[in-house]
Amino acid sequence: MNIAVCIKQVPGTTKVKIDPQTNTLVREGIENIVNPFDTYALEEGVRLKERYGGKVTALSMGPPQAEEVLREAIALGADEAVLLSDNAFAGADTLATSYTLAQAIGKLGQPELIICGRQTIDGDTGQVGPELAEMLGLPFVAYVSKIEDINSGYMRVQRMVEDGHEVIELPLPAVLTVVKEINTPRLPSLRGLAKSKAALIPIWTAQDLGVDKDMVGLSGSATKVIKIFFPQRVGGGEILQGKLESQVETLVDKLRDARII
Amino acid sequence: MEYLLTEQQKTIKQLARRIAEERILPVRAELDEKEEFPWAIMKDLADSDMFRVAIPEEYGGLGGGCLELCLVVEELSRVCSGIAVSYAASALGSFSLLKYGTEEQKRRYLPDIASGKRLAAFALTEATAGSDASAIRTTAERVEGGYILNGTKQFITNGGEAEIYTVIALTAKEKGARGASAFLVEKDAPGFSFGKKEKKMGIRASSTRELVFRNCFVPEENMVGREGVGFIMTMKLLDNSRPGVGAQAVGLAQGALEAAVDYARERIQFGHPIISIQAVQHMLANMATEVEAARLLVYAAARTIDSGAKNFTEEAAMAKVFASDTAMRVTTDAVQIFGGVGYMRDYPVEKMMRDAKITQIYEGSNQVLRDAIAFELRKRKAKRE
To answer: How confident is the model over A148-168, as pLDDT tens digits?
Structure first.
């Protein structure tokens, strides 16, 4: 079973700062990590490979340094990795990203399964998985928490919904996004780390993919970030004193004055 | 400090630290409290190839030596030396094979030890034979096709959990130490069972147990080395393993030092963090200096062994003695810096202090090892070296 896993390099969670002048992420001196949700996608891909045979290819679109996360993916059990990197890809929103990933997946030859994390921790949209399925014309299930069985071209999965689980059967090839409940990702092994250091990671450019330049990067994006801002901190506050009854009356008056009630 | 580690050694150290922090830290207090063997951690260590580091490549290892082993033990011990010792004891159990095993024995056992599929253990100590290892009473009587073992081993690390045991027994009782031989005994050998599981002061996540042999048959191909060389072989093997105990002590002391620095920065007394008090600063400075000195001595001893030196009794003993005495002092001072809360089980330093004590006792008590160091000094003087 050939599996493609899409991963993204993101800034380490708690250390994100935004440049107030340019409204962009300050990336200098920031530790980059594999998007945590993607580590579950990779682990599930590797486990399926161990169970059913085949190979796992990790894919990432990003700047040249995103190669680091692909090396980590190899240390964690991916057989191959491909970096999609080109100035033309810069500034992509989820639509342009999905388009580029879909082209790369086409170039890989049709994998039977494509797994993504449920969302990234920097963009947080959760759109790339479903958009990718749409572009590839494949069945899609989001928030998968368990792969129950794969058998003669079909798979049965559990998907987390707000009030329980849904069990869904779908034909392969397919696209899934997974939640953290699906597994506990392994740590790298020493042999895996040695393999990852030596691995050759090809870089595919816009030309390699033969993509339409108007569909990738900023020009292929349907959305544009106009402004990034921190919510204003509202300071102050008032603590009411006195008897309970009078406190309640004062509170109701104040809420009326503020037109909240 | 620059330790002159190779890229591979740095990778080993980093990964061991990551396993310790991500997998061991969340469970160390619970495993200590419940005195539970850390099987889940052993699996993590196996999956990450940690059991492979000091085994030659032809048997599924990564071809490292004593230093690589010490780096893993140090990093695991920084978080929990009770868990680290189960790992280290398996390595000790493999030493007899590595140094004296036949090609056939190596092929039969080392790949499983390297993959972590089977743990190993080493069994010398008996109720009557502690520091005086020559006083062992377990016998191995020659019969057709093998030997019959009878006797009881005491305080065996990984006892009951390991599957491959190196057991020292007397093939010629009348010859005493010169009549000892080494045998590989598998867990399911008929006549081999496990006795009392010890309740310990520290390293409580590890298993320490009696091994009981009652007419236990061991085939002759499981003898390691020749008849009568068991004792001298044991002394050599323990020279090999002592830097590992030193590394355990260094890791423990490092963990206690870091905990003490963190706490001293947070704890406010008299309106200031206690780290601003000179008495505390000097304690921390001494702790840090001693830990660094112990680490360098352990690494130097390990490198001496890995360089192919013939006799390293003195270096190995010095590393073990100095590092374990350091661990005892540093963990005790860490509890002192924490004060009252350090004595409570809510904080990790009381466990570190309990765990440290054994490093001064096992694999040669520090008193016996000082004898060994002094013996080497006298020998050199006599030879006018």
So the answer is: 999 889 999 999 998 899 999
A190/B49 Cβ within 8 A: yes
Whole-prediction pTM: 0.88
Q: Do residues B164 and B113 lie in contact, with contact meaning Cβ atoms separated by under 8 Å?
A: yes
Q: Where are the alpha helices (DSSP H) in A53-144?
A: 67-75, 94-107, 128-136
Rama region for B57: left / alpha / beta (φ>0; ψ in -120 to 50; rest): alpha
First-to-last C-alpha distance (Å) of chain B: 32
**Cβ separation of B50 and A193 shorter than 8 Å?**
no
Given a cut of 90, whether residue A27 has pLDDT beyond it is no
Q: Is there a cis peptide before residue A64, judged by omega within 30 degrees of 0?
A: no
Of the candidates B11, B22, B44, the beta carbon closest to that of A190 is on B11
Predicted local confidence at residue A195, as pLDDT? 95
Please, which residues 43-102 of chain B have a Cβ atom closer than 8 Å to chain A? 44, 47-50, 52-53, 62
Domain spans, chain A = 2-220
- Taking only the tens place, the pLDDT of each residue in A85-104 is 999 998 888 999 999 999 99
Whether the pLDDT of residue A205 is over 70: the answer is yes
* ipTM given for this complex: 0.90
Return the CA Rg of chain A.
23
CATH code for the structural domain at A2-220:
3.40.50.620
Domains of chain B: 7-119 (1.10.540.10), 121-228 (2.40.110.10), 231-383 (1.20.140.10)
**Residue B316: both structure tokens together:** 């190995």
The 10s digit of each residue's pLDDT in B178-224 is: 999 999 999 999 999 999 999 999 999 999 999 999 999 999 999 99
Nearest CA in chain B to A188: B48
Determine whether B363 is an active site residue.
yes
The alpha carbon of residue A111 is apart from the nearest alpha carbon of chain B, in Å, by 27
CA dist., res. A235 & res. A231, Å (int): 12
Amino acid at A155: M
Mark yes or no for CB contact A187/B53 under 8 Å. no
Q: Find chain A residues with C-beta within 8 A of B44's C-beta.
A: 187
CB proximity A190 to B under 8 Å = yes
A191 shares contact with chain B (CB less than 8 Å): yes
Of the listed ranges A34-48, A212-226, B352-366, the one predicted with least confidence: A212-226
Percentages helix, strand, coil for chain B, rounded to the nearest 5? 60, 15, 25
Query: Looking at beta carbons, which residues of chain B come within 8 Å of A190?
Result: 11-12, 15, 48-50, 52-53, 62
- Decide if B15 and A191 are in contact by the 8 Å CB cutoff: no
Cβ contact, residue pair B62, A187, below 8 Å: no
pLDDT in tens, B76-115: 999 999 999 999 999 999 999 999 999 999 999 999 999 9
Residues in chain B closer than 8 A to A188 (CB atoms): 15, 48
